[in-house]
Amino acid sequence: MIGWLLLVALLVLGVPAVAFLAQDRLLFLPHLATAPPGGMRLPRPVEEVTFATPDGSRVRGWLAPAGRAGRAPLIVYYGGNAEDVTGQAFEPWPEDWALALVNYRGYGASEGRPSERVLYTDAEVVLDALARRPEIDPARIVLVGRSLGTGVATHVAARRPVRAVVLISPYDSMVALARHHYPFLPVRWLLRHRFDAIASAPGIRAPLLAIVGERDVVVPPGRSRRLYDAWGGPKRWVVIPEATHDDLGLQGPFWEPILAFLDASRAG
């Protein structure tokens, strides 16, 4: 009997302990440094950019200037947990917008280790620096977040004036999402990186476009809908039929609502 009790105790205490210690490796999956712009063929020119953070780490990425003269609108992209965001330079973002693709700490050529706190702080530093650039129109900045990055985009939108927000596969909070996937764990007590997007959503007045995959099992549409329903500004909900979390951006109907939303945001 004592042996069984010890086994149960080990399971009850050991499994949560392992989950607590492994959570960073489960949540953040950094990619290695990206090749420099001169080493590959890109659809549009890009400039390598570096930003110093308050603790001395440097985050790096690319800025694709708009293909037009004068102050341009800007798209700032926040990627998923396993994404080198510079890959977005190959996607069909409108060329009359500037496009900022800055990697999280530990991703691409960015220094340091990722965490919820530093992702938030770095995102604010980067946005403020971009808004000061003479070729950028600070009144026409749109934030785009995918998966993990939707929590970063929501945080920034609640603290900086932005024209609009696009959220692709958004979630209400990482606690709620982790509880959905690991109902046997006390995730509320274990999770350090909470990404509580729904707490910020009601105070945001910027227009929102939310895009979800009908068959997404990583971030189920119900979790996305809770954040959407809490959003304080005008909003549009788009479901891509048959799409999963991983192939959402490959579906034919994916880009049309994004490009239309950006066009309306530029003119608005």
Task: Characterise the protein shown here.
- The structure is a single chain.
- With 268 residues, the protein is an alpha/beta fold.
- The chain has one domain (2-267): Rossmann fold (3-Layer(aba) Sandwich), CATH 3.40.50.1820.
- Helices cover 35% and strands 20% of the residues.
- Strands 1-2-4-3-5-6-7-8 form an eight-stranded mixed sheet, sandwiched between helices.
- Strand 7, helix 7 (221-230) and strand 8 form a beta-alpha-beta unit.
- The longest helix is centred in the first third of the chain and has 26 residues, at 2-27.
- The termini are far apart.
Global mean pLDDT: 87
Number of strands: 8
Number of domains: 1
Helix content: 25-40%
**Topology pattern, helix = H, strand = E:** HEEEEHEHEHHHEHEH
C-alpha geometry: globular
* CA-CA gap between termini: 71 Å
- Tell me the Rg in angstroms: 19 Å
Secondary structural class: alpha/beta
CATH fold-level label: Rossmann fold
Draw up the topology in text.
Elements: H1 2-27, E1 47-52, E2 58-64, E3 72-78, E4 98-102, H2 116-131, E5 136-146, H3 148-159, E6 164-168, H4 174-181, H5 187-190, H6 197-200, E7 208-213, H7 221-230, E8 235-240, H8 255-267
Helix pairs in contact: 2-3
